[in-house]
Amino acid sequence: MPRKKPAETAKPDAAPEVPPKPKPKPLKALFSQERVFLEQSDGALDLFNQGRYGEPLDDGKIQLALHEALYLFEKQKIFILAGKKKLGFSQIVERSQKLEPNFWTRYCVYKDIRNRGYIIKTALKFGADFRVYDRGVKPGEDHARWVVYPVQESNVVTWYEFSAKNRVAHSTKKRLLIGIVDDENDVTYYEIRWMRP
């Protein structure tokens, strides 16, 4: 005797399947002298508004620091041109290291902090490499919590240099974070604070 097929029943509260959003195409960026620029576009403005990448210029372009550009390149958010030539990862690193000898160490710290969900910006006006904001806080909404100094594990930092970095953090009412990059490009952080005995 043939078996009867069970009657198909509709799932009561089943939502219709929504197709996934297409992945946005990488934005075009131009490597010019010491910086990388995103052309004026909604996508460039979105990168700034959502993640605070770069700084908006008067002409509508977004100026990226070298470490920001490499990070966005690695995340496939942008592609970078030098003239009409498309640059690869090693070419971007090579150009950046010519401009900033400590670039790779700085980039390792920048990338690690970004990957942890923090917004990290340059802090040259504070006398530091970077400033870092608490998660969920954007620059302009509140002050940065830390100033960060990237250091290669094999480098020597004198007590004088260490003391100067600590004074800068204290005078700007921020905590000092030393990011030590080892030979495998892993980063270990040490937070230093003033204490009164």
Describe it:
With 197 residues, the protein is an alpha+beta fold. It folds into 2 domains: 24-100, 3-Layer(aba) Sandwich (MutS, DNA mismatch repair protein, domain I); 102-197, Trna Endonuclease, Chain: A, domain 1, CATH 3.40.1350. It has 5 helices and 11 strands. It has helices at residues 42-51, 66-74, 89-99, 103-115, 159-171, and strands spanning 27-32, 35-38, 55-56, 62-64, 78-82, 85-86, 119-122, 130-133, 146-152, 175-181, 187-192. The strands form 2 sheets. A 6-stranded mixed sheet has the order 3-4-2-1-5-6, covered by helices on one side. A hairpin with a 2-residue loop joins strand 1 and strand 2 (35-38). It is globular, with a radius of gyration of 23 Å. The model has no long low-confidence stretch (mean pLDDT 88).
Query: Helical region count?
Result: 5
Using the coordinates shown, work out and report the CATH topology of the largest domain.
Trna Endonuclease, Chain: A, domain 1
What is the succession of H and E elements?
EEHEEHEEHHEEEHEE
pLDDT < 50 stretches: none
What is the oligomeric state here? Answer: single chain
Mean pLDDT: 88
Structural class by helix and strand composition: alpha+beta
Structural shape: globular
The strand line-up of the biggest sheet is 3-4-2-1-5-6
What is the terminal separation in angstroms? 91 Å
Per CATH, the architecture of the largest domain is: 3-Layer(aba) Sandwich
Strand content: 25-35%
Top CATH class of the largest domain: Alpha Beta
What percentage of residues falls in helices of 4 or more residues?
Answer: 25-40%
Q: How many distinct beta strands? A: 11
Work out the radius of gyration. Answer: 23 Å
Major beta sheet summary: 6 strands, mixed
- Return the domain count: 2
